[in-house]
Amino acid sequence: MDFLISIAEGFIGMFQEGGETFMGxxxxxIPMLVVLITAVNALVRFIGEExxxxxxxxxxKYFVLRYTIFPFLAVFFLTNPMCYTFGRFLPEKQKPxxxxxxxxxxxxxxxxxxxxxxxxxxxxxxxxxGITELGLSLGPLAMRxxxxxxxxxxxxxxxxxxxxxxxxxxxxxxxA
Length: 176
Known about the structure:
Layout (H helix, E strand, L loop, with lengths): L1 H26 L1 H19 L1 H11 L3 H4 L2 H10 L16 H11 L15 H13 L4 H38 L1
Protein backbone atom coordinates (compact mmCIF):
# COMPACT_ATOMS: atom_id res chain seq x y z
CA MET A 1 0.00 0.00 0.00
CA ASP A 2 2.84 2.42 0.86
CA PHE A 3 4.27 1.76 -2.59
CA LEU A 4 1.08 2.96 -4.31
CA ILE A 5 0.90 6.02 -2.08
CA SER A 6 4.52 6.90 -2.95
CA ILE A 7 3.77 6.56 -6.66
CA ALA A 8 0.64 8.74 -6.35
CA GLU A 9 2.48 11.41 -4.33
CA GLY A 10 5.38 11.37 -6.78
CA PHE A 11 3.00 11.66 -9.72
CA ILE A 12 1.12 14.67 -8.34
CA GLY A 13 4.39 16.14 -7.05
CA MET A 14 5.72 16.21 -10.59
CA PHE A 15 2.77 18.38 -11.66
CA GLN A 16 3.14 20.61 -8.61
CA GLU A 17 6.79 21.23 -9.52
CA GLY A 18 5.74 21.93 -13.10
CA GLY A 19 3.18 24.44 -11.84
CA GLU A 20 5.76 26.21 -9.70
CA THR A 21 8.17 26.37 -12.63
CA PHE A 22 5.41 27.72 -14.86
CA MET A 23 4.53 30.43 -12.32
CA GLY A 24 8.19 31.38 -12.14
CA UNK A 25 8.20 31.84 -15.92
CA UNK A 26 4.95 33.84 -15.87
CA UNK A 27 6.29 36.23 -13.25
CA UNK A 28 9.85 36.32 -14.56
CA UNK A 29 10.93 35.63 -18.12
CA ILE A 30 7.64 35.89 -20.03
CA PRO A 31 7.04 39.61 -19.30
CA MET A 32 10.65 40.32 -20.28
CA LEU A 33 10.19 38.40 -23.56
CA VAL A 34 7.01 40.31 -24.39
CA VAL A 35 8.78 43.63 -23.82
CA LEU A 36 11.82 42.55 -25.89
CA ILE A 37 9.70 41.35 -28.82
CA THR A 38 7.67 44.57 -28.71
CA ALA A 39 10.84 46.69 -28.67
CA VAL A 40 12.37 44.81 -31.62
CA ASN A 41 9.19 45.10 -33.68
CA ALA A 42 8.95 48.80 -32.85
CA LEU A 43 12.58 49.31 -33.91
CA VAL A 44 11.97 47.63 -37.28
CA ARG A 45 8.90 49.78 -37.84
CA PHE A 46 10.77 52.91 -36.75
CA ILE A 47 13.67 52.22 -39.11
CA GLY A 48 11.34 51.12 -41.90
CA GLU A 49 11.01 47.71 -43.49
CA GLU A 50 12.41 48.94 -46.83
CA UNK A 51 15.58 50.24 -45.17
CA UNK A 52 15.95 47.00 -43.27
CA UNK A 53 15.54 45.08 -46.55
CA UNK A 54 18.15 47.21 -48.35
CA UNK A 55 20.60 46.77 -45.50
CA UNK A 56 20.05 43.01 -45.56
CA UNK A 57 20.79 42.87 -49.28
CA UNK A 58 24.04 44.79 -48.78
CA UNK A 59 25.00 42.47 -45.92
CA UNK A 60 24.86 39.41 -48.13
CA LYS A 61 27.50 40.54 -50.63
CA TYR A 62 30.46 39.36 -48.52
CA PHE A 63 30.67 35.85 -47.05
CA VAL A 64 32.01 37.07 -43.69
CA LEU A 65 28.98 39.34 -43.22
CA ARG A 66 26.64 36.83 -44.84
CA TYR A 67 27.48 34.18 -42.22
CA THR A 68 28.01 36.36 -39.13
CA ILE A 69 26.14 39.67 -39.07
CA PHE A 70 23.31 38.57 -41.35
CA PRO A 71 22.28 35.47 -39.35
CA PHE A 72 22.68 37.46 -36.11
CA LEU A 73 20.32 40.15 -37.38
CA ALA A 74 17.87 37.58 -38.70
CA VAL A 75 17.70 35.68 -35.41
CA PHE A 76 17.68 38.85 -33.30
CA PHE A 77 14.98 40.72 -35.21
CA LEU A 78 12.77 37.95 -36.54
CA THR A 79 13.46 35.26 -33.91
CA ASN A 80 13.17 31.54 -34.46
CA PRO A 81 11.62 30.25 -36.78
CA MET A 82 10.91 33.44 -38.78
CA CYS A 83 14.64 34.23 -39.05
CA TYR A 84 14.99 31.75 -41.90
CA THR A 85 12.91 34.02 -44.12
CA PHE A 86 15.95 36.31 -44.39
CA GLY A 87 17.17 33.73 -46.91
CA ARG A 88 14.98 35.46 -49.49
CA PHE A 89 17.74 38.04 -49.96
CA LEU A 90 20.18 35.38 -51.14
CA PRO A 91 20.67 33.56 -54.42
CA GLU A 92 19.63 29.89 -54.40
CA LYS A 93 23.19 28.62 -54.09
CA GLN A 94 23.70 30.50 -50.79
CA LYS A 95 20.38 29.67 -49.13
CA PRO A 96 21.44 26.29 -47.66
CA UNK A 97 24.52 27.88 -46.06
CA UNK A 98 22.49 30.75 -44.64
CA UNK A 99 19.97 28.31 -43.20
CA UNK A 100 22.78 26.26 -41.67
CA UNK A 101 24.26 29.39 -40.08
CA UNK A 102 20.95 30.70 -38.78
CA UNK A 103 19.80 27.38 -37.36
CA UNK A 104 23.16 26.97 -35.63
CA UNK A 105 22.85 30.38 -34.01
CA UNK A 106 19.43 30.12 -32.35
CA UNK A 107 20.92 28.63 -29.18
CA UNK A 108 24.09 30.74 -28.68
CA UNK A 109 22.09 34.00 -28.88
CA UNK A 110 19.65 32.90 -26.16
CA UNK A 111 21.93 33.77 -23.23
CA UNK A 112 22.05 37.46 -24.10
CA UNK A 113 18.79 37.81 -26.04
CA UNK A 114 16.23 35.28 -24.80
CA UNK A 115 13.49 36.72 -27.02
CA UNK A 116 15.32 35.35 -30.07
CA UNK A 117 14.46 31.75 -29.29
CA UNK A 118 12.27 31.17 -26.26
CA UNK A 119 12.04 27.47 -27.14
CA UNK A 120 15.76 27.09 -26.37
CA UNK A 121 15.46 29.00 -23.14
CA UNK A 122 15.10 25.85 -21.04
CA UNK A 123 18.59 24.76 -22.11
CA UNK A 124 20.10 28.11 -21.17
CA UNK A 125 18.17 28.23 -17.89
CA UNK A 126 19.54 24.80 -16.97
CA UNK A 127 23.08 25.95 -17.57
CA UNK A 128 22.38 29.27 -15.83
CA UNK A 129 21.03 27.53 -12.74
CA GLY A 130 24.30 25.66 -12.29
CA ILE A 131 26.41 28.77 -12.85
CA THR A 132 24.40 30.92 -10.43
CA GLU A 133 24.46 28.14 -7.85
CA LEU A 134 28.24 28.43 -7.95
CA GLY A 135 27.89 32.16 -7.32
CA LEU A 136 29.24 33.11 -10.73
CA SER A 137 27.95 35.78 -13.11
CA LEU A 138 26.06 34.74 -16.22
CA GLY A 139 27.30 37.66 -18.34
CA PRO A 140 30.73 36.29 -19.23
CA LEU A 141 29.30 32.87 -20.07
CA ALA A 142 26.60 34.41 -22.26
CA MET A 143 29.25 36.46 -24.11
CA ARG A 144 31.40 33.37 -24.63
CA UNK A 145 28.41 31.47 -26.01
CA UNK A 146 27.76 34.37 -28.39
CA UNK A 147 31.37 34.65 -29.59
CA UNK A 148 31.78 30.91 -30.10
CA UNK A 149 28.38 30.85 -31.81
CA UNK A 150 29.45 33.53 -34.29
CA UNK A 151 32.68 31.67 -35.08
CA UNK A 152 30.77 28.41 -35.55
CA UNK A 153 28.14 29.94 -37.85
CA UNK A 154 30.85 31.54 -39.98
CA UNK A 155 32.65 28.22 -40.38
CA UNK A 156 29.42 26.31 -41.04
CA UNK A 157 28.31 28.90 -43.58
CA UNK A 158 31.58 28.78 -45.49
CA UNK A 159 31.74 24.98 -45.49
CA UNK A 160 28.08 24.55 -46.45
CA UNK A 161 28.38 27.13 -49.25
CA UNK A 162 31.46 25.31 -50.57
CA UNK A 163 29.69 21.93 -50.46
CA UNK A 164 26.55 23.35 -52.08
CA UNK A 165 28.61 24.96 -54.84
CA UNK A 166 30.42 21.67 -55.54
CA UNK A 167 27.16 19.72 -55.61
CA UNK A 168 25.51 22.23 -57.96
CA UNK A 169 28.51 22.16 -60.33
CA UNK A 170 28.51 18.36 -60.22
CA UNK A 171 24.80 18.27 -61.08
CA UNK A 172 25.35 20.62 -64.04
CA UNK A 173 28.21 18.43 -65.33
CA UNK A 174 26.13 15.26 -64.97
CA UNK A 175 23.16 16.86 -66.74
CA ALA A 176 25.29 17.80 -69.76
